[in-house]
Amino acid sequence: MSKKSLLNIPQGVLVSVKGKVVFIKGLVGIVKKNIHPCLSIFLIRNYLIITTKLKSKVLLNTFTTLILNMLKGVRVLFEKVLELKGLGFNLKKQGNLLIFKLGYSHPTNLITPNNITINILNKDGTLFNVQGSDSQLVGEFAGKIKTLYPVEPYKGRGVRIIGQFIYKKEGKKLS
């Protein structure tokens, strides 16, 4: 018995299926995704149908969610807002090169991927956002930036995503 998922394609979004690859184009971007070999995908009018013959719906649900995120991302950009917290921490942008000053003896450089945009939100360069039409790519790049200087638990210095809970430890007590 085959299981299927039916997705409505919104107005202004173009979808094409070529073999096991789905291309979705909208107002703010173009994304593509390779489909798992156990799944089949069909385009009928303004509906996208994903089917599987597996007993479990886990894979079907995962790819349905990924394609729903793709349909959303080509209309409205996904965004993560990050903050640099520490003495002298800041970010400068030169084209697609990001230059981080994170308290090390030298600046740390990072190149932004093609589908990602970085906007500096304040004049100090301590608050910025990562935007893109692919939610997975936005999350991965924000995570890569966080690894440049992970938040330390005593004073809270480091790179953090706004809204993320940071557990702070109590320092040593004097007796």
TrEMBL record:
InterPro entries: Ribosomal_uL6-like, Ribosomal_uL6-like_a/b-dom_sf, Ribosomal_uL6_a/b-dom, Ribosomal_uL6_bac-type. It comes from the Bacteria. One of its GO terms (cellular component) is ribonucleoprotein complex. It holds the Pfam family Ribosomal_L6. The keyword RNA-binding applies. Residues 87-160 form the Large ribosomal subunit protein uL6 alpha-beta domain. Keywords: Ribonucleoprotein, Ribosomal protein, RNA-binding, rRNA-binding. GO terms for biological process: cytoplasmic translation. The keyword rRNA-binding applies. GO terms for molecular function: rRNA binding; structural constituent of ribosome. SUPFAM superfamilies: Ribosomal protein L6. This protein binds to the 23S rRNA, and is important in its secondary structure. It is located near the subunit interface in the base of the L7/L12 stalk, and near the tRNA binding site of the peptidyltransferase center. Belongs to the universal ribosomal protein uL6 family. This is 50S ribosomal protein L6.
